[in-house]
């Protein structure tokens, strides 16, 4: 077998990068889980109940069917999350007057207050505190390139949803990214 020293070093560096990405993913999961335990549904505005409340903050009243489409969720899964939010007093589900089969979702006052208290800026400040503005911009560009590569590689496997394309900036943990290319 023939191995060049440089090839082994490059492979090792790429493997180390991948391990760091996975480690970061686990740490972020732990961080947002901890925030959820402290702050409830808005502990993580990028998934589950927090994502629903964030969307409702932008669009205060929406049909349940449209919400499922935008969030690219099965109606049953969305129904379970909405039930939890309703029990918590954060949303109200009411049938449409004209068509009782259509459910309209609205934020309650408690839901509006919770959505307003989102600690999103605090998260960004904390997570990127060790990087100056130039480093943050460089990281942003690198992540754009990595995300684009993964999206391209998964698009032909049916992973990329047309609903996510429609919503653009709202889908996924990077939905706040200001310059997403689609």
Give an overview in words.
The chain is mainly alpha-helical and 182 residues long. The protein has a single domain (33-170), classed as Winged helix-like DNA-binding domain superfamily/Winged helix DNA-binding domain (Arc Repressor Mutant, subunit A, Orthogonal Bundle). The protein contains 8 helices and 3 strands; from the N terminus they run ααβααββαααα. Strands 1-3-2 form a 3-stranded antiparallel beta sheet. A hairpin with a 7-residue loop joins β2 and β3. Mean pLDDT is 76; it is low at 159-182.
Which key features would you list for this structure?
mainly alpha, Arc Repressor Mutant, subunit A, 8 helices, 62% helix, 7% strand, disordered C terminus
Please sum up the structure shown.
The protein is mainly alpha-helical. It has a single domain (33-170), classed as Winged helix-like DNA-binding domain superfamily/Winged helix DNA-binding domain (Arc Repressor Mutant, subunit A, Orthogonal Bundle). The protein has helices spanning 5-39, 48-58, 64-71, 75-87, 109-116, 120-127, 133-155, 162-167, and strands at 61-63, 91-95, 103-107.
**Helical stretch count?**
8
Question: What average pLDDT do the residues reach?
Answer: 76
**Structural class designation:** mainly alpha
Q: Which CATH-level-2 architecture?
A: Orthogonal Bundle
Instruction: Predict the CATH topology.
Output: Arc Repressor Mutant, subunit A
Number of domains: 1
Beta-strand percentage? Answer: 5-15%
Radius of gyration: 20 Å
Low-confidence stretches: 159-182
Q: How is the largest sheet built, in terms of strand order?
A: 1-3-2
Oligomeric form: single chain
CATH superfamily: Winged helix-like DNA-binding domain superfamily/Winged helix DNA-binding domain
Gross morphology: elongated
Helix proportion: 55-70%
Task: Report the end-to-end length measured between terminal Cα atoms.
Answer: 44 Å
Number of strands: 3
């Amino acid at each position: 077998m023939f191995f060049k020293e440089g090839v082994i070093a490059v492979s090792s560096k790429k493997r180390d990068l991948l391990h760091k990405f996975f480690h970061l993913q686990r740490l972020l999961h732990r961080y947002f889980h901890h925030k959820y335990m402290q702050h409830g549904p808005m502990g993580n505005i990028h998934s589950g109940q927090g994502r629903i409340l964030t969307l409702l903050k932008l669009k205060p009243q929406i049909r349940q069917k449209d919400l499922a489409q935008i969030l690219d969720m099965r109606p049953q899964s969305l129904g379970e999350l909405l039930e939890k939010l309703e029990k918590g007093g954060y949303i109200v589900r009411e049938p449409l007057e004209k068509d009782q089969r259509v459910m309209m979702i609205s934020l309650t006052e408690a839901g509006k207050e919770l959505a307003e208290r989102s600690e999103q800026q605090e998260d960004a400040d904390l997570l990127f505190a060790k990087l100056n503005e130039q480093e943050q911009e460089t990281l942003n560009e690198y992540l754009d390139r990595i995300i684009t590569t993964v999206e391209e590689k998964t698009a032909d496997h049916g992973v990329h949803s047309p609903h996510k394309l429609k919503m653009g900036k709202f889908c996924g943990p990077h939905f706040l990214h200001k310059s997403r290319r689609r």
